[in-house]
Design brief:
Layout: E1 3-7, H1 11-23, E2 27-31, H2 34-41, E3 48-52, H3 60-69, E4 76-80, H4 85-93, E5 98-101, H5 106-117, H6 123-127, E6 130-133, E7 136-139, E8 144-147, E9 150-152, H7 156-167, H8 175-183, H9 193-205, E10 210-213, E11 217-220
Parallel strand pairs: 1-2, 1-3, 3-4, 4-5
Antiparallel strand pairs: 6-7, 7-8, 8-9, 10-11
Helix pairs in contact: 7-8, 7-9
This protein binds calcium ion (CA).
The site of calcium ion has 5 residues, from loops.
Amino acid sequence: MTHILIVEDEVRITSFLEKGLQASGFTTTPASNSDDAVAIALDGSVDLMLLDLGIPGQDGLALLEVLRGQGFQAPVIILTARDDVQDKVTGFEVGADDYMTKPFRFEELLARIRVRLRTSLSSGEAASLTLTLGDLVLDLRTRRLMFEGQFLELSAREFTLIETFMRHPNQVLSRQQLLDLVWGYDYEPGSNVVDVYVGYLRKKLGNKVIQTVRGMGYRLAV
Ligand code: CA
């Protein structure tokens, strides 16, 4: 099993990440401060690390520098509320592989985790980085959708929405389920974004691919 170390001091975010990652087949270990993170990272079983920069003890960037200096080679994705270019530059300089600014959607983080892990995947697992359903082929690595043989340009949110539908074929998904799965905690209550984005996808895919189920939600019909 792929083992992900979650270095994060906010309990709410740690539990959100653990729940999602375990549901996606990963094992997880949380660390809420830099000392615990170092101990777990250096025990040799970690395949990927998610790293919050603002943690008790050593700052996340300093921690990463120490770990890289001690031979820690697993991919590292930085998670931070700081939307600061200098932090990103420093993060890459000290050995981060990717960077996500909070708040983020779980599905997008999952896609990035898969990209970072892909070099160590077998070919069978690599094939699972493509989702195919009827005329829809979704490449999770390049984040491109092919529909009826044509590549379509999708925004990040449209991509995650169609991915979510493709992972639940022929299932009716309510607006609330779609908000939870696609927007995570990053939406306004009472928001109509789901309807808006289904509208965007219909403009690209035609009206038949995503059906409205009156009073219940939406269903992918392919
Ligand atoms: Ca923090």
